Amino acid sequence: MRRLKILILIFCITLSVPLGYFVWQTYRGLAQEEAATLRFFANTLFDEIEQALATLVQREEARVIDEYNFFTSSSGRYREGTDVNRSPLSRLPAEYYILGYFQNNPDGSFQTPLAQADRTVAADNKDAVTQLEQANRKFNRIRTTVTDKIIPAPDKAIVPAEQKKGDVFAGKYLDLTRSKEPKAALGQKEKRFEEITVAQAKNVARQEAGERAQSPEPPAVSMSKKRPSRRPAARAPMADRDFAGSPAGELQSELAAGEANAADQAAAATREAESFQVEVAPLQSVFIGGGQIFIFRRIMINQKIYRQGFILKVPAFLNHLAQNYFSNQPMAGFSNLRLRVMDQGREIELAEAGVSAQDPKLVLQRAFPPPFAFLNATLSCDEIPRSAGRQTLMIMMGVLAAIFLIGLFAIYKSAQTLVDLSERRSQFVSSVTHELKTPLTNIRMYIEMLAQGIAKDTEREQEYFQIIDSEGSRLTRLINNVLDLAKLEKKQRTLDLQPGTFEDVVAEVQTVMQAKLKQEGYTLKSLQEDIRPFNYDREAMIQVLINLIENSIKFGRAAVRKEITIRTYPDGRWVKIAVSDFGPGIPRQALNKIFDDFYRVDNALTQTTRGTGIGLALVKKFIHLMGGRVTAENNTGAGCTITISLPVAE
Length: 650
Hints:
five-stranded mixed beta sheet, seven-stranded antiparallel beta sheet, Heat Shock Protein 90
């Protein structure tokens, strides 16, 4: 048995190592899948924000350059004061995070489509115009140091080590090296040249000619490529003078003076219909303080730089992004989004949404391209949502572990049973040898005594003959028990069930066991109540009762009260036969085992009392074959009772 335990232990260890590795790898794969899923949807969230920013940039880049005045001449049929020519920017922006639009002129002066030149500002726009004027003054103080410079391409984002590990899962399906390269810009990457008319140029420079600059004019850092088109040959010198050597303000004055007569009006109309190229730079952004950012583009006309854009209210803008793209998403229930505005490595503004992340297991960052390079988004999560496969795996692993343990336990118990049975068989062979040898020895001894004439009278001879007969019957019963057990195990024993009331069986048993009972000093009592006939095999029941009585005699030799009772009584649809004695009883832990093949209770009494261990096993097999059952229990006082239950005849 010890060797079997060692083999089972080795088997468990051998099987547990690959099984544990399999579970670990499966959990690792599920963790990668969960992280990849969260990473995918987080990047989708960032992509939505980036797409919204790109849409905003594309909208602003598509604006006509003279929309930053109250009236626009974009249609080519400009007539000041008509609603059809009113700029779409002349009303307060629909986006609450945009303060308003304005143009910063080369001389530092200010104009906004919210205010019409030389007129009173509308009450609804007055506060916004005041704030835009303040923003223009702040911008004038810093524009020479932060603008009109080449914008360097953003550095490639550094992917954290933990994020690289997580990308192993997605990397099996896609090459992510190119997809992770950040965009250089959300809108146009390089400066472009745009065709504008003279009327548009005049409209852009409308206020420059009539106001003094608020700050010194910055030096121009790039040149426009003037290209006249569709210009009459006779007017070429005039056009060259207007645009090659004169600023836009001078052009405005000259055109105004020429409208006095019809010829000059015709010439002015011709010039206004002409077009030339202006340089339009990509959008860029600059901090002007007070939670405001100026997002603008540079327009170069005749070596003059105009800056057109809008003021972004940073706190409102961050709140807009968090509320519109994150807070109403299921992801907000288990992750945290931080939107930060950075300036030279310093955090200027912060907006946070979702649940707080104390010890995040996954952190994803996105730095957005220019002109929103100041915006940085970070999504973190303490607990990554579990996939449905994890629960299925846990259930299956639990079932597998249970089956594994149950199987090992069953193997162990089966092996233990086989070992115990083998040991009991070995003991049975020894016991049978002894049991067969004992009556044969007695028979041979008494025959020799009779042959030598030791019995001197007839009474003594009869006594010897009775002992020889008793030992012969004992030997016969022992042999029959062994043969019947072998037949029952091979299912070769058949029974002849006949209805009866059991009196004949009890009478036969009393006759057979009379000599043995007298020799051991026992008395046998029979108590039978009125019962209905029930089916039983007479010979098998005689053998059953004899085995029970012999068992009581064998273990009750030291009993104070040597009495055995056979009681037969009805119990519903059953007839019960109870055999009781006043012997030592049966240990509680052995009550359910005494009917097993070759089983003998291991105590001091069984060690001094010989037996084969098949008597009670035969009782159980015969009763089960008759359709009944047998149980054993200790009496309240001394002894035990073995009860046989058989169904009544139909």
